[in-house]
Amino acid sequence: MFATDPLAAVLTVLREAGPDRELRAEEIKRALVERGVPENRLHAWRRVQERLVGHERVAVGGDRYHRTYRWLPESPPPTPDQALALLAEHRLPAQRRVELVEVVRAALASREDASGPAADPVHVARLEQRERDAVRALAELAIEVEELVTNEASSRAVVHTVRSLTKLADLRPIERAGEMTRFDRTRHTSVGGRIADGAPVLVLRPGYIWNRGDEEILIARAVVQDRSPS
Amino acid sequence: MTTALDFGTSTTLVATADGVVPIGTIDAALPSIIGYDDDGTLVIGEQAEALSPTQAVRSVKRSITERRDFVPVDLPAGVRDVRVDDLIGHLLHEAVRRAAARGVDLTASGVRLGCPAMWDGRQRRRLLDAATRSGLPLTLESLVDEPVAAGIAWLAAHARSVSGDPSGGAWEAEAPLRVVVFDMGGGTLDVAVLDVRGPHHREVSVLAALGAPEAGDALDEAIADDLDFALARYGVDTDSLPRPDRARELLLDAARRVKIRLSTEEETPVPLHRDTFGRVELWYTRDQLNAVFSRQMDRAEQYVAAALRVARLTELVGRSAHEIARLPLATVVADVDLVLLSGGMSQIPYVAERLRRIFPETTRIEFAAARPHHAVAIGLAHTEGYGRVNMYRPAFDVALEWDNGRGFRTIYEAFTPLVEAVQVARGSADLRYVRTGPELGLPRQGTGILRVKSYSDTRVRATVSGAKLDGYTVTLSDSFEFSIYPNGRIKIVDGAGTHEGQIEDWHTIG
């Protein structure tokens, strides 16, 4: 079995050890040899080891050099929220990703069936229009900047135009590139090391805040560099 | 469910009560452009934007306003006159097709189509015929005056603050509202005066509606002229350039963009092409824009004043036209509660600034909808439950039958204006709609029966000498005369004498 499907063979070892027992790599290899796997075939373990990380039925513990593996009892499938969190936060094997995506997709589909709006073509058209409007706003910004640069407009004209267009998208700039200000960790991020609040800094790139109705969303902090006297 | 089709001069929109339904491939709107490509294929909307100016018809709706039946179009066989109504039918059919792809069936009942309040019956029927040929199940009742729709868009959005929640609104729950709709679009300015009343402010009447063929296009030209002068100060004489015509095109393009940018900015760089104008950096300010816009806004204010004066004619306690024409501006604007801004041009801050100067402080000036160019479509989709009466152009025919129905004349055709603004401006003494027996070619003796046919959702209740107007018997004579006054008074002179009446459904104004 190990020759044709080494992962399945290792999983069998873990399953038979039960959910209460953590096995180290040496213990798994020994169990495989006891089951007739020639020692010169155990080099496949390295590939299996990678696939055990993120496997839905295996808990990986210990540290990088002394990993342990434990069989997990069958658990209910992840909720859509859990599936989404796993997808967002972990590098998972392709098969596992497919399974989790299916959980999220099924949840979305059932919500559409139940409440209708997502399946409603008018609703879909409105969502698509919002997307088109956003992309078009970006394209218009690109068009204006390219035109200004081609016509050798001043930097004042370019910055003014960019800020006019971002204002239409309810974006408010944080600082202006090239100006000096005082470091504020809530609005600035350092290009290098830590900067003390209030320290003089040079603005390398501006940031933007999105005024979404009454809500203020920090889209990007201004990037600054420490200019404290050394 | 009410669905809305706003066939605008520049764009066509579809909406439901939840909002606009996107039918464009880029914007939510379908561009109201139609034409024929090089091999004679009909092209509509975004694709038609790419046609040469002679192959495409822009603003085809304006042809109805201007009563043109044909427009010249460059076809493979040469320039030919194409029937306007056919082009409109194709455009509307495309809107129907695209809406269907979005799950909105415009061929079902409950569709409302907007039209300018200043259109008469013949103009409305032209649009209606084109629409019905496109599969839209419409009648004249389905047409809604655009300023009424814009007003309803605002009323629907502010229903709570206006009438349901006294703490949120400036007005008492059921107090009548006098509303001015100022709709400035790409090509026309429309001003309408509305009276809004009834429980939850659901009865909307048009008291006056005037239109002028001057709006965005005129301002673009004025800004381009101003930019031309500004360039001259930098030593650039556009007339001396190798291609002055191309330079003018570029200035007009720059003018359009500057105009839009200055809606949100105090100043803006003018996009000028270096290859044509050299390396000149020109900035244009809102003050400069306001200066070139001021004359146009002077005229717009005169239209507002004229519309408000015409609206005064609906007061039951009548003043003479001479008196109304001489009323000071401060008097005619005094009772306006709300000014609603609609159309793309109304987003220029100077529009609200100028109107602010002529209206009292108590008058609210607001956009009819968050996106003013969507106001008509959104309002159309909310017309369910709103009573609508056009007192300026009543939506009913009055006909006279005689000889057991063998003789028949329409003596008032629906949507004919009862008075023209020019009559008020001139201080005409006799302000009414009037038709006489000789004008109508009526028999000089015998009897006739008046018939009333309504084209609105609101039934017409009108009486003469205590009897219903619909079915009223008149004695025909040489002196026969039928009059409707702007305040709803009816006067019939026949062989038996003079008979007074009143259209009772109209709001009692004054």
Helix proportion range of chain A: 40-55%
Highest CATH level, the class of the largest domain in chain A: Mainly Alpha
- Give the largest interface pair and sizes: A-B, 24 and 25 residues
Report, as a whole number of angstroms, the end-to-end distance of chain A.
66 Å
Radius of gyration of chain B: 25 Å
CATH architecture of the largest domain in chain A: Orthogonal Bundle
- CATH evolutionary superfamily of the largest domain in chain A: Winged helix-like DNA-binding domain superfamily/Winged helix DNA-binding domain
Mean pLDDT of chain A: 85
Structural class of chain A: alpha+beta
Using the coordinates shown, work out and report the CATH topology of the largest domain in chain B.
Answer: Nucleotidyltransferase, domain 5
Strand count, sense and closure of the main sheet of chain B? Answer: 6 strands, mixed
Task: Give the SSE map.
The complex is a heterodimer of chains A (230) and B (510).
Chain A: H1 6-17, E1 22-24, H2 25-34, H3 45-52, E2 58-62, E3 67-71, H4 80-89, H5 94-115, H6 121-150, H7 155-168, E4 171-174, E5 180-182, E6 188-190, E7 200-205, E8 207-212, E9 215-220, E10 222-226
Parallel strand pairs in A: 6-10
Antiparallel strand pairs in A: 1-3, 2-3, 4-8, 5-7, 7-10, 8-9
Chain B: E1 3-7, E2 11-16, E3 19-21, E4 30-31, E5 33-36, E6 42-44, E7 56-58, H1 61-65, E8 70-75, E9 78-83, H2 84-101, E10 111-115, H3 121-133, E11 143-145, H4 146-157, H5 159-164, E12 177-184, E13 189-197, E14 203-212, H6 216-233, H7 244-261, E15 267-269, H8 274-277, E16 283-285, H9 286-312, H10 321-325, H11 329-333, E17 338-342, H12 349-358, E18 364-367, H13 375-381, E19 387-390, E20 396-402, E21 407-412, H14 421-425, E22 433-436, H15 437-440, E23 447-454, E24 462-464, E25 467-468, E26 473-475, E27 481-484, E28 489-494, E29 497-503
Parallel strand pairs in B: 1-10, 10-11, 12-17, 14-19, 17-18
Antiparallel strand pairs in B: 1-2, 2-3, 2-4, 5-6, 5-7, 8-9, 12-13, 13-14, 15-16, 20-21, 20-23, 22-27, 23-26, 24-25, 24-29, 27-28, 28-29
Helix pairs in contact in B: 2-3, 4-13, 6-7, 6-9, 9-12
